[in-house]
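Phenol hydroxylase: structure, please.
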Amino acid sequence: MTDASFPADITPAQLDTERRFVRITGERPGGFIEFDFAVGEPELFVEMILSRPAFEEFCEMNQVQTMGPAQDSGPEDRMADFAWSLRDATGKRFK
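Here you go.
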């Protein structure tokens, strides 16, 4: 896709793929770490699970920055029905 394919008033966002982020979201029996991993933008992440040694190696290899706890947008957010993660899926009833 070239820049010419964008309307004149839209500028594509710059994404710094050198920035990597993790947020630990839980720990399972047996030493497994549940975490969110993001590249470039902390708001766009994937949920992952690794053993503690593998997690530590993963963080070192990716030179990650640690993110704070996820922010709850609250019920007033009109997209609240879509604010869930895979770890919520077993305990949340969806419409």
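Notes: The chain has one helix and four strands.
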